[in-house]
């Protein structure tokens, strides 16, 4: 394999041979290579945030008919770097009465939880941090650390608004974890493996076509998981003064900021891996580096949709958000999971072709979605309508008499 078609594996192979040539044992070489891999992947992910901040601000400006950053550098490209310098130089203020250890641990855990997810995301063929056979279960466990970070931040800040934001986190993120897990189990059933790399390799037809309802559930639940509009109630500035991170300043607040932007792109990358085939595409087998281009293009496409939703939809109420989860997303997810398992079992037993499998699951998904919306429409039709209040008729005023 040439360097230009697969540079990452070429560098890894060269560096491994170099360390072995220095006389290091196989165990030490493996440890050093894994440590370097963690450092490189984390650094690239954190540097990517600088570009994501600029991109999201520009996209939001276009959606809302504004210009966005356009002063510092061409097209405002250097504006995120100026923001980074400002964050690093701002004063760290620690309020009185906080729990010092947990207060300082929460920002670190917020960023680390997102970086943990990248360990099992295959960038292209043969390049993945670790190919766990329970990769999907690892995604659920690592994602829960972000919830823990927000809870620690709200509880340890000694601020009632921060605590209310943390309570909303329990109601929101824990609730929407249920449809997220249900949606994640559908690709597992279709691929027959919990390995994220295995799910990508099994997608001869992308799972967005095979199971569009699962993709929609995962996308909506992920928006709530990362606290993006219209589910950004835990950071409701108009209600609880920025929520759980109100008592953080400087670099500590910047770490929450970085975690939010990186989490949004990470969710987009997961969607691309689980439902869009990841690195798979024309020529990706022969030229592995082309698979990285496919993967990043799909991830940025989903990220564009995330920004689009954030820039156009209003914030919903907490009761509306929870009703939408428990009364719509969760029942649909449970029915979809059972139907997918039954159809997949029938197909495996009957020995039907791959095309029949794709068509069967697609028909079941369309039927489930049609029935769900039909039920919602019937319930809305039976709901009693409020009668408009009759307005009092205006009283005619007598004409004014002009005195001479």
What's the topology here?
Elements: H1 7-21, H2 26-63, H3 79-89, H4 100-117, H5 135-156, H6 160-191, H7 196-201, H8 207-210, H9 212-225, H10 237-240, H11 250-275, H12 288-312, H13 318-350, H14 354-382
Helix pairs in contact: 1-2, 2-3, 2-11, 2-12, 3-11, 4-5, 4-11, 5-6, 6-9, 6-13, 9-11, 9-13, 11-12, 13-14
Structure, described:
This protein starts with 6 loop residues before the first helix and ends in a 22-residue tail after the last helix. 69% of the residues lie in helices and 0% in strands. The chain folds into two domains: 1-89, no CATH class; 93-379, no CATH class. It has 404 residues and is mostly helical.
Please tally the helical runs, counting DSSP H or I stretches of 4 or more residues: 14
The N- and C-terminal alpha carbons lie at a distance of: 106 Å
Give average pLDDT, whole number.
Answer: 86
Structural class: mainly alpha
Question: What is the chains' assembly state?
Answer: single chain
Order of helices and strands: HHHHHHHHHHHHHH
Strand content: under 5%
**What does the main sheet amount to?**
none
Low-confidence stretches: none
- Number of separate structural domains: 2
Radius of gyration: 26 Å
**What is the 3D shape?**
globular
Proportion in helices = 55-70%
Tell me how many strands there are: 0
């Amino acid at each position: 394999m040439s360097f230009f078609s697969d540079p990452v594996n070429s560098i890894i192979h060269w560096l491994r041979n170099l360390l072995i040539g220095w006389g290091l044992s196989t165990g030490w070489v493996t440890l050093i290579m894994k440590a370097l891999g963690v450092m490189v992947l984390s650094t690239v992910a954190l540097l990517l945030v600088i570009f994501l901040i600029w991109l999201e601000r520009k996209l939001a400006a276009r959606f809302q008919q504004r210009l966005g950053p356009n002063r510092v550098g061409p097209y405002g490209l250097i504006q995120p770097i100026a923001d980074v310098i400002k964050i690093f130089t701002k004063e760290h203020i620690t309020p009185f009465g906080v729990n010092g250890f947990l207060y300082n641990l929460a920002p670190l855990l917020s960023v680390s939880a997102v970086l943990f997810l990248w360990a099992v995301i295959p960038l292209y063929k043969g390049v993945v941090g670790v190919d766990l056979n329970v990769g999907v279960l690892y995604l659920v466990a690592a994602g829960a650390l972000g919830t823990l970070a927000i809870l620690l931040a709200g509880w340890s800040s000694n601020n009632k608004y921060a605590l209310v934001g943390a309570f909303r986190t329990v109601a929101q993120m824990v609730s929407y974890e249920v449809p997220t897990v249900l949606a994640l189990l559908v690709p597992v059933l279709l691929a027959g493996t919990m390995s994220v790399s295995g799910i990508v390799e099994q997608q001869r037809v992308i799972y967005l076509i095979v199971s569009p309802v699962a993709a929609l559930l995962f996308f909506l639940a992920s928006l709530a998981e990362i606290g993006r509009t219209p589910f950004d109630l835990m950071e409701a500035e108009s209600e609880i003064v920025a929520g759980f991170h109100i008592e953080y300043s400087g670099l500590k607040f910047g770490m929450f900021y970085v975690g939010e932007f990186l989490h949004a792109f990470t969710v987009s990358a997961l969607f691309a891996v689980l439902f869009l085939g990841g690195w798979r595409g024309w020529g990706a087998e022969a030229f592995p580096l082309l698979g990285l281009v496919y993967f990043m293009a799909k991830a940025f496409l989903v990220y564009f949709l995330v920004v689009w939703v954030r820039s156009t939809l209003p914030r919903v109420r907490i009761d509306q958000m929870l009703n939408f989860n428990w009364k719509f997303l969760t029942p649909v997810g449970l029915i979809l999971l059972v139907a997918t398992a039954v159809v997949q079992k029938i197909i495996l037993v009957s020995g039907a072709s791959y095309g029949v499998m794709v068509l069967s699951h697609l028909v079941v998904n369309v039927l489930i979605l049609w029935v769900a919306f039909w039920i919602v429409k019937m319930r809305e039709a039976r709901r009693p309508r409020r009668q408009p209040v009759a307005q009092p008729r205006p009283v005619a005023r007598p004409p004014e008499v002009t005195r001479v």
